[in-house]
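::Encoded backbone::
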Amino acid sequence: DAEPQPGWAVASIDQFTGGRLAAQHLIQLGHRQIALLSGPLSWYDALLRHQGWLSALQQAGLTPVATMESDWTPAGGYRATAKLLETGTPFTGLLVANDQMALGALRALHQRGLQLPRDVSVVGFDDIPEAAFLEPPLTTIRQDFSLLAQRSLDQLKACIDQPNAPRHLTMLVPELIVRSSTAAPRKP
């Protein structure tokens, strides 16, 4: 799951497409005030997810109402969401770069008395096993890590069996998993 480089054999998950899927879901539900909570943008995967969100928003004629950057952890997600809420910037949708940060975001939203998805819809990324058991269950982007591991081993075996063969990129497409943390925004 490395950044693709010419001449490298790489198996990866399409983070950009995953970001687009998450943003398109909120847009299709009718959200227009969407905030972004990215991972560290110095990380390749975080940057691609963020770019995917922005691409979908731009295609819909939207810009994010706020953008926060955090560190992949629940505590970081909590701090960033609390800071976002302190700004008073209105948002009905929150795109979060991983499910761990979404855990913290859910706590910050709950402490402010906001209910999901009535007040805010949240989409995570990764589909960790706990995502289906949160309250409400988290809408997220599923990455098939088992298939990624298999494709990585296939690439490694090909490199061993044919050391002079050209190397290539195997790109896997993530999947949107819709659960109860998203709904159409409330009518004012």
Remarks:
- The two ends are 44 Å apart (CA to CA).
